[in-house]
């Protein structure tokens, strides 16, 4: 490939910012996140509070009725946020070896092809026409390979003229 090579180090904060940008950009992902990570645990705690109130009021019928729901609700209130944290951590660690808290990445592209390489670990070759979406904010950009899979590139990784070219080549959802 006859293009300049851009080398940069991805930090964990870039990974977290990419997750946030994905939630902002993808409405169904955001709805799913808020439902499972916020709404379901809050409802679980509310039902557990109703169970506690029934216990304090010595309401046996309400206690027996709400006990399984309260138990499941409290379990979900603890389990779901913990699993989100665990999965984000696992995805970050699984992507490659870290050096000094970051991951080295090499990026090359021309008018037809984009090559993203984690040296010694993986290489992805993607045609611009094969990418399905593009999102960016002031910190980074996401190049979507699939609906829930993307490459993230910090704004500091490329010079402004390269970003102009990426914006021109990147696909946009209609």
How would you portray this structure in words?
This protein is of the alpha+beta class and 174 residues long. The protein folds into two domains: 5-12 and 97-169, Pleckstrin-homology domain (PH domain)/Phosphotyrosine-binding domain (PTB) (PH-domain like); 18-95. It is 52% helix and 25% strand. The chain has helices at residues 12-25, 27-56, 60-95, 160-169, and strands spanning 5-11, 102-109, 113-118, 122-127, 133-136, 140-146, 149-154. The strands form two sheets. It has a four-stranded antiparallel beta sheet with strand order 1-2-3-4. The protein has a three-stranded antiparallel beta sheet with strand order 5-6-7, with helices on one face. Helix 1 crosses helix 2 (27-56) and helix 2 (27-56) packs antiparallel against helix 3. It is elongated and about 75 Å long.
């Amino acid at each position: 490939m006859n293009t300049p090579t851009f080398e940069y180090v991805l930090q964990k904060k870039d990974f977290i910012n990419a997750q946030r940008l994905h939630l902002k950009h993808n409405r169904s992902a955001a709805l799913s996140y808020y439902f499972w990570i916020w709404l379901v645990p809050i409802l679980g705690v509310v039902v557990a509070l109703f169970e506690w109130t029934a216990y304090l009021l010595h309401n046996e019928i309400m206690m027996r009725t709400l006990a399984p729901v309260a138990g499941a609700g409290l379990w979900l209130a603890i389990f779901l946020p913990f699993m989100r944290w665990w999965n984000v951590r696992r995805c970050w660690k699984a992507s490659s070896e870290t050096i000094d808290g970051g991951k080295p990445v090499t990026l090359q592209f021309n008018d037809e092809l984009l090559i993203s390489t984690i040296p010694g670990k993986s290489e992805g070759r993607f045609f611009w026409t094969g990418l399905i979406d593009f999102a960016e904010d002031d910190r980074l950009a996401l190049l979507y390979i699939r609906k829930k899979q993307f490459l993230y590139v910090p704004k500091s990784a490329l010079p402004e003229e390269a970003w102009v070219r990426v914006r021109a080549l990147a696909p946009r959802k209609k």
